[in-house]
Amino acid sequence: MLELRAITAGYVKKAPVVRDVSLTIAPGEAVGLLGPSGCGKSTLARVAALLHRPDSGTLVVDGEPVRHWRHRAPRELRTAFGVVFQQPRLSADPRLPLRDLIAEPLRATGRREGLAERVAELASGVGLTPDLLDRRPHEVSDGQLQRACLARALVLRPRWLVCDEMTAMLDASTTAALVAVVEEYRAATGAGLLAVGHDRTLLDRWCDRTVHWETLAASARPAQAGQPVAERIPAG
Length: 236
Ligand SMILES: Nc1ncnc2c1ncn2[C@@H]1O[C@H](COP(=O)(O)OP(=O)(O)OP(=O)(O)O)[C@@H](O)[C@H]1O
Known about the structure:
This protein is of the alpha/beta class.
Protein backbone atom coordinates (compact mmCIF):
# COMPACT_ATOMS: atom_id res chain seq x y z
CA MET A 1 0.00 0.00 0.00
CA LEU A 2 1.23 3.48 -0.86
CA GLU A 3 -0.44 6.08 1.32
CA LEU A 4 -0.03 9.82 0.96
CA ARG A 5 -1.74 11.29 3.99
CA ALA A 6 -2.53 15.00 4.15
CA ILE A 7 0.59 15.95 2.22
CA THR A 8 1.58 19.60 2.03
CA ALA A 9 4.65 20.28 -0.09
CA GLY A 10 6.32 22.89 -2.26
CA TYR A 11 9.41 24.91 -2.88
CA VAL A 12 8.83 27.97 -0.72
CA LYS A 13 7.90 27.35 2.91
CA LYS A 14 4.94 29.70 3.17
CA ALA A 15 3.53 29.01 -0.29
CA PRO A 16 3.09 25.26 -0.76
CA VAL A 17 1.91 24.05 -4.16
CA VAL A 18 0.41 20.86 -2.71
CA ARG A 19 -1.94 21.44 0.22
CA ASP A 20 -3.39 18.75 2.41
CA VAL A 21 -3.60 16.13 -0.33
CA SER A 22 -4.31 12.46 0.36
CA LEU A 23 -4.14 9.52 -2.01
CA THR A 24 -3.90 5.79 -1.40
CA ILE A 25 -2.76 3.19 -3.92
CA ALA A 26 -3.44 -0.45 -3.10
CA PRO A 27 -0.79 -3.10 -3.77
CA GLY A 28 -0.77 -3.85 -7.49
CA GLU A 29 -3.20 -1.05 -8.25
CA ALA A 30 -2.70 1.42 -11.12
CA VAL A 31 -3.91 4.94 -10.36
CA GLY A 32 -3.94 7.74 -12.91
CA LEU A 33 -3.61 11.31 -11.69
CA LEU A 34 -5.11 14.05 -13.86
CA GLY A 35 -5.06 17.77 -13.27
CA PRO A 36 -4.42 21.14 -14.86
CA SER A 37 -0.89 22.23 -15.67
CA GLY A 38 1.03 23.58 -12.69
CA CYS A 39 -1.40 22.30 -10.03
CA GLY A 40 1.24 20.20 -8.27
CA LYS A 41 0.92 16.69 -9.72
CA SER A 42 4.64 16.26 -10.33
CA THR A 43 5.45 17.60 -6.89
CA LEU A 44 3.11 15.06 -5.30
CA ALA A 45 4.55 12.29 -7.49
CA ARG A 46 8.05 13.26 -6.35
CA VAL A 47 6.96 13.11 -2.71
CA ALA A 48 5.49 9.64 -3.34
CA ALA A 49 8.75 8.46 -4.95
CA LEU A 50 10.87 9.77 -2.05
CA LEU A 51 12.40 12.49 -4.22
CA HIS A 52 10.89 15.53 -2.49
CA ARG A 53 10.43 15.96 1.24
CA PRO A 54 6.94 17.28 2.13
CA ASP A 55 6.49 20.17 4.55
CA SER A 56 3.90 18.14 6.44
CA GLY A 57 1.83 15.00 6.16
CA THR A 58 2.84 11.36 6.11
CA LEU A 59 3.93 8.98 3.39
CA VAL A 60 3.45 5.33 4.33
CA VAL A 61 5.04 2.71 2.06
CA ASP A 62 3.93 -0.86 2.59
CA GLY A 63 3.02 -0.07 6.20
CA GLU A 64 6.21 1.85 7.03
CA PRO A 65 6.00 5.62 7.58
CA VAL A 66 8.77 7.32 5.62
CA ARG A 67 11.10 9.49 7.68
CA HIS A 68 13.79 10.39 5.15
CA TRP A 69 13.74 11.43 1.51
CA ARG A 70 16.27 11.47 -1.36
CA HIS A 71 19.77 10.25 -0.50
CA ARG A 72 18.82 10.04 3.20
CA ALA A 73 16.13 7.43 2.55
CA PRO A 74 17.23 3.87 3.26
CA ARG A 75 18.43 2.17 0.08
CA GLU A 76 15.85 -0.66 0.22
CA LEU A 77 13.08 1.93 0.31
CA ARG A 78 14.58 4.09 -2.45
CA THR A 79 15.00 1.09 -4.70
CA ALA A 80 11.38 0.07 -4.14
CA PHE A 81 10.50 2.88 -6.58
CA GLY A 82 11.06 3.11 -10.29
CA VAL A 83 10.46 6.58 -11.69
CA VAL A 84 10.09 7.79 -15.27
CA PHE A 85 9.82 11.51 -16.04
CA GLN A 86 8.40 13.42 -18.97
CA GLN A 87 11.67 14.66 -20.42
CA PRO A 88 14.22 11.88 -20.75
CA ARG A 89 17.01 14.30 -21.67
CA LEU A 90 16.79 15.97 -18.29
CA SER A 91 17.02 12.68 -16.43
CA ALA A 92 19.71 10.95 -18.51
CA ASP A 93 23.44 11.52 -18.08
CA PRO A 94 24.45 12.71 -21.59
CA ARG A 95 27.85 10.98 -21.29
CA LEU A 96 26.47 7.48 -20.84
CA PRO A 97 25.75 5.06 -23.69
CA LEU A 98 22.24 3.65 -23.28
CA ARG A 99 23.54 0.31 -21.97
CA ASP A 100 25.30 2.13 -19.09
CA LEU A 101 22.29 4.35 -18.53
CA ILE A 102 20.10 1.28 -18.03
CA ALA A 103 22.74 -0.38 -15.84
CA GLU A 104 23.31 2.73 -13.70
CA PRO A 105 21.08 1.65 -10.75
CA LEU A 106 22.65 -1.84 -10.74
CA ARG A 107 26.17 -0.37 -10.52
CA ALA A 108 25.10 2.21 -7.93
CA THR A 109 23.77 -0.55 -5.69
CA GLY A 110 26.70 -2.92 -6.28
CA ARG A 111 24.63 -5.52 -8.17
CA ARG A 112 27.10 -6.36 -10.92
CA GLU A 113 26.36 -10.06 -11.20
CA GLY A 114 24.42 -10.83 -14.37
CA LEU A 115 24.39 -7.13 -15.22
CA ALA A 116 24.97 -7.50 -18.97
CA GLU A 117 22.23 -10.13 -19.28
CA ARG A 118 19.75 -8.05 -17.30
CA VAL A 119 20.44 -4.98 -19.45
CA ALA A 120 20.09 -7.01 -22.66
CA GLU A 121 16.84 -8.56 -21.46
CA LEU A 122 15.34 -5.20 -20.50
CA ALA A 123 16.56 -3.45 -23.65
CA SER A 124 14.88 -6.09 -25.75
CA GLY A 125 11.72 -5.82 -23.60
CA VAL A 126 11.44 -2.06 -24.20
CA GLY A 127 12.17 -2.44 -27.92
CA LEU A 128 15.78 -1.19 -28.11
CA THR A 129 17.94 -3.00 -30.64
CA PRO A 130 21.52 -3.88 -29.58
CA ASP A 131 23.10 -1.27 -31.89
CA LEU A 132 21.26 1.51 -30.04
CA LEU A 133 22.78 0.49 -26.71
CA ASP A 134 26.21 1.82 -27.72
CA ARG A 135 24.82 5.26 -28.57
CA ARG A 136 24.72 8.23 -26.23
CA PRO A 137 21.50 10.17 -25.55
CA HIS A 138 22.22 12.81 -28.23
CA GLU A 139 22.50 10.04 -30.82
CA VAL A 140 19.00 8.63 -30.27
CA SER A 141 15.44 9.94 -30.57
CA ASP A 142 13.33 11.08 -27.62
CA GLY A 143 11.28 7.90 -27.89
CA GLN A 144 14.38 5.67 -27.88
CA LEU A 145 15.81 7.55 -24.92
CA GLN A 146 12.54 7.26 -23.04
CA ARG A 147 12.56 3.50 -23.69
CA ALA A 148 16.02 3.38 -22.08
CA CYS A 149 14.78 5.47 -19.13
CA LEU A 150 11.89 3.05 -18.62
CA ALA A 151 14.32 0.11 -18.72
CA ARG A 152 16.45 1.93 -16.12
CA ALA A 153 13.37 2.41 -13.93
CA LEU A 154 12.63 -1.32 -14.06
CA VAL A 155 16.16 -2.64 -13.66
CA LEU A 156 16.00 -3.01 -9.86
CA ARG A 157 12.56 -4.64 -10.03
CA PRO A 158 10.70 -1.93 -8.08
CA ARG A 159 7.47 -2.63 -6.20
CA TRP A 160 6.13 0.79 -7.13
CA LEU A 161 6.29 2.69 -10.41
CA VAL A 162 5.80 6.42 -10.74
CA CYS A 163 5.38 7.53 -14.35
CA ASP A 164 5.22 11.31 -14.50
CA GLU A 165 3.88 12.20 -17.95
CA MET A 166 6.08 9.43 -19.30
CA THR A 167 4.53 9.53 -22.76
CA ALA A 168 3.71 13.24 -23.08
CA MET A 169 6.43 13.83 -25.72
CA LEU A 170 5.86 10.63 -27.65
CA ASP A 171 3.82 9.51 -30.64
CA ALA A 172 0.88 7.12 -30.34
CA SER A 173 2.77 3.94 -31.22
CA THR A 174 5.67 4.63 -28.83
CA THR A 175 3.14 5.55 -26.13
CA ALA A 176 1.32 2.25 -26.65
CA ALA A 177 4.61 0.33 -26.60
CA LEU A 178 5.80 1.90 -23.34
CA VAL A 179 2.45 1.45 -21.61
CA ALA A 180 2.49 -2.20 -22.71
CA VAL A 181 5.97 -2.65 -21.17
CA VAL A 182 4.79 -1.16 -17.88
CA GLU A 183 1.70 -3.37 -17.86
CA GLU A 184 3.71 -6.51 -18.67
CA TYR A 185 6.05 -5.70 -15.81
CA ARG A 186 3.14 -5.09 -13.45
CA ALA A 187 1.44 -8.31 -14.50
CA ALA A 188 4.66 -10.24 -13.82
CA THR A 189 5.55 -8.58 -10.51
CA GLY A 190 2.36 -7.14 -9.02
CA ALA A 191 3.91 -3.67 -8.84
CA GLY A 192 1.63 -0.71 -8.15
CA LEU A 193 1.58 2.38 -10.36
CA LEU A 194 1.01 6.10 -10.08
CA ALA A 195 0.70 7.52 -13.60
CA VAL A 196 0.55 11.32 -13.85
CA GLY A 197 -0.79 12.80 -17.07
CA HIS A 198 -3.01 15.15 -19.02
CA ASP A 199 -4.46 12.58 -21.37
CA ARG A 200 -7.64 11.37 -19.77
CA THR A 201 -8.33 8.79 -22.47
CA LEU A 202 -4.91 7.24 -22.02
CA LEU A 203 -5.13 7.17 -18.22
CA ASP A 204 -8.65 5.72 -18.30
CA ARG A 205 -7.48 2.91 -20.54
CA TRP A 206 -4.23 2.32 -18.70
CA CYS A 207 -5.23 2.55 -15.05
CA ASP A 208 -7.65 0.83 -12.69
CA ARG A 209 -8.97 4.25 -11.72
CA THR A 210 -8.33 7.85 -12.58
CA VAL A 211 -8.24 10.49 -9.87
CA HIS A 212 -8.73 14.20 -10.48
CA TRP A 213 -6.52 16.66 -8.66
CA GLU A 214 -9.52 18.73 -7.53
CA THR A 215 -10.91 15.81 -5.55
CA LEU A 216 -7.71 14.91 -3.72
CA ALA A 217 -7.58 17.65 -1.12
CA ALA A 218 -11.23 16.91 -0.30
CA SER A 219 -10.35 13.28 0.34
CA ALA A 220 -8.21 14.35 3.28
CA ARG A 221 -11.34 15.56 5.02
CA PRO A 222 -14.45 13.56 5.88
CA ALA A 223 -16.45 13.18 2.67
CA GLN A 224 -19.81 14.87 2.63
CA ALA A 225 -22.85 13.00 1.42
CA GLY A 226 -22.95 12.89 -2.35
CA GLN A 227 -19.47 14.36 -2.74
CA PRO A 228 -17.26 12.13 -4.87
CA VAL A 229 -13.65 11.93 -3.76
CA ALA A 230 -12.38 9.91 -6.69
CA GLU A 231 -13.71 8.64 -9.94
CA ARG A 232 -13.44 4.97 -10.77
CA ILE A 233 -13.49 4.17 -14.43
CA PRO A 234 -13.25 0.60 -15.65
CA ALA A 235 -10.07 -0.12 -17.62
CA GLY A 236 -10.37 -0.68 -21.36
N1 LIG B 1 11.92 23.25 -8.51
C1 LIG B 1 10.94 24.15 -8.39
N2 LIG B 1 11.16 25.33 -7.76
C2 LIG B 1 10.18 26.24 -7.59
N3 LIG B 1 8.91 26.05 -8.03
C3 LIG B 1 8.64 24.90 -8.66
C4 LIG B 1 9.63 23.90 -8.87
N4 LIG B 1 9.04 22.86 -9.53
C5 LIG B 1 7.75 23.21 -9.73
N5 LIG B 1 7.51 24.44 -9.21
C6 LIG B 1 6.21 25.12 -9.21
O1 LIG B 1 5.28 24.35 -8.46
C7 LIG B 1 4.01 24.36 -9.06
C8 LIG B 1 3.56 22.93 -9.30
O2 LIG B 1 4.46 22.34 -10.24
P1 LIG B 1 4.31 20.81 -10.69
O3 LIG B 1 5.42 20.54 -11.65
O4 LIG B 1 4.18 19.96 -9.50
O5 LIG B 1 2.90 20.87 -11.45
P2 LIG B 1 2.22 19.84 -12.46
O6 LIG B 1 0.81 19.72 -12.04
O7 LIG B 1 3.01 18.59 -12.53
O8 LIG B 1 2.34 20.63 -13.83
P3 LIG B 1 2.45 20.09 -15.34
O9 LIG B 1 1.18 19.33 -15.60
O10 LIG B 1 2.54 21.36 -16.13
O11 LIG B 1 3.69 19.26 -15.43
C9 LIG B 1 4.12 25.20 -10.33
O12 LIG B 1 3.64 26.48 -10.05
C10 LIG B 1 5.62 25.24 -10.59
O13 LIG B 1 5.99 26.45 -11.21
